[in-house]
Amino acid sequence: QMPFLVDSVTSALAGQGFTVHLVIHPILRLERDGSGRVGILHEADAKVNGKALRESFMHVEVSEETDPHRLAELTGQLERVLDEVRVAVADWQQMRRRLAEIVADLGANPPPVDAAERGEALDFLAWLGDDNFTFLGFREYRFGEAQQGGLDIVPKSGLGILRDDGYAVFDGLRNFATLPPDVREFLREPRLLMISKSNRRAMVHRPVHMDVICLKMFDAAGKAAGERIFVGLFTSLAYSRSPRQIPLLRRKVWNVLQRSGFGPSSHDGKALQHILDNYPRDELFQMGEDELFDTTLGILNLQERQRVALFVRRDPFERFVSCLVYVPRERYDTALRQRFAAILEEALGGTVDSFNTQLDQSVLGRVHFILRTTPGRLALVDIDQVEKRLAEASRSWGDRLAEALTEALGEEAGTARLHRYGEAFPSGYRERFSAAAAVYDVERFEELRQGADIGVMLYRTLEADQAELRFKIYRAGTPLALSDVLPVLEHLGLKVIAEVPYAVAPAAGPPLSMQDFSLVADAGEVDVTRDRARFEAAFLSIWSGAMESDGLNRLVLAAGLDWRQVT
User: Fold this and answer.
1) Distance CA 420, CA 100 (A)
2) Model pTM?
3) Measured torsion, CA atoms of residues 298, 387, 377, 283, in degrees rounded to the nearest 10
4) Residue 361: is its pLDDT beyond 50?
5) C-beta of residue 234 within 8 angstroms of C-beta of residue 131
6) Per residue in 292-337, pLDDT tens?
7) Sheet containing strand 53-56, strands side by side
8) Cβ–Cβ < 8 Å for 519, 495
9) From CA 466, how far away is CA 446, in angstroms rounded?
10) What is the three-state SS of 96-157?
């Protein structure tokens, strides 16, 4: 019997794509004889029998699977999970004792760092040991003798899941010379404590990237000589408590507030404190104070501005990029988040590993993307340009309509049209037509407001054949009956392929309708620019009764005659 068994097994099943339908996990009192047979004991018997064991049995029902390869993969994965649970639990107390020894050693032999930094680090390590960190592994590294030497594992230093020296916490750390120069310098700088994320996801407890607590070791000359690392997971308390109650974070938060110069009771001071309290906790643990100051001040400047903004943090080891995207809350939806992800993946040359969305009472929502990148290949990008691409992706159809109306009609007339038609078009229309195309439709609807019976427009889409045409009919009230329209179009030499009606509801006035017809011309190629006005006039004349609807009307397109000449 040991902790983490049930959640580790069910997480492994989910990770392999199995749907868990039932989990039964009793704790039984057992007795095993020399041949391996198992007997279940009553609780009373178990108390007096020294050979009795308490064992956890798990019965898990998942969706049916008969593929032997899939089942073999699942068996191997569950065995690896149980092995990691076993070694992590077996060495748990020893890892806690190792942490206590390190704290005692740092107190007795102060490293060559600032006294305030050392004190905060000691408090943080003590806080970790107070049930705020689930310890899964421990290991020591030593730098090689030469500048280009490797980062070598100290033999027999590993505990928990790091008992195996082949278990890589950070990809590339055993090839120190191949790391970029700035990363090598980061590893050697005289900094006592660093918090990072492992490349590996935990198999124990929660299937997330493990947290790594790195503690520098210094030689007699005060130079960095190696590192001790603890790997594991921060507990839920570490995420739910205020950062002002957590050592290390409280110092960052306090320094940022002091540097801002805002009074604690001022509007900006309270707003900045709220930003820090709700900042992604993993980011607070990992990012430096200067970067935190610049980012949170940038976020503060957004509070009253409904615009898209991007804040990027690069992992020092170039394994991932953290992106905070702020977007007006009413514009956020799943489709927009997917567009953001695609833009970030392309611009940063990575793959979205995870995302988290926060929507509260603020006018801005926040999406936190983590993108996996390849060390040494992280693209140098213009963040301002990426932000502009995100902003363009977030613009609604209504935003584009407002811009198109203003550009076509001027600010005053465009604003008046926008008030009337900004919310008038249904979703099907918005998906099919651009905002620029809607400007032409708005003007036809305005003709109806001036007293016209119906409005029409002949056009062709850019990708269409020369014989393919489109024809719109605008009307107040309900659409025209197809039985009335189709004979007229056929007499004009057009075959109707499809018709899509749209109900338009302006802010003032009666409801409107638009019918969009897909047509093919009997005469073959049609020059829309040359024939549009003549065709539209002929259709309106037929509809008003000034022209008869018969086969001679084909002459409008076939012979280039106007309706009077045909008559």
Assistant:
1) 71
2) 0.78
3) 30
4) yes
5) no
6) 999 999 999 987 677 899 999 998 878 899 999 999 988 899 999 9
7) 38-40, 27-32, 53-56
8) yes
9) 30
10) HHHHHHHHHHHHHCCCCCCHHHHHHHHHHHHHHHCCCEEEEEEEEEEECCCCCCCEEECCCC
- Residue 303 CB-density burial (10 A; 0-12 exposed, 13-18 middle, 19+ buried): middle
Closest-CA residue to 132 (of 267, 208, 233, 2): 233
- Quickly count: other Cβ atoms within 10 Å of residue 93's Cβ: 10
Q: Nearest 5°: phi and psi at 450?
A: -85, 0
CB count within 10 Å of CB 332 equals 19
Tokens coding 139: 């290991």
SS3 435: helix
Residue 420 and residue 398 in contact, taking contact as beta carbons nearer than 8 Å: no
> Do the Cβ atoms of 226 and 234 come closer than 8 Å?
no
Strand order in the sheet with 320-328: 309-314, 320-328, 364-372, 351-358
Residues 6+ apart with CB under 8 A from 64: none
Structure tokens at 143: 């730098």
Strands (E) in 193-238, as ranges, are 193-201, 209-218, 224-234
Q: How far is it, in rounded angstroms, from Cα 63 to Cα 497?
A: 46
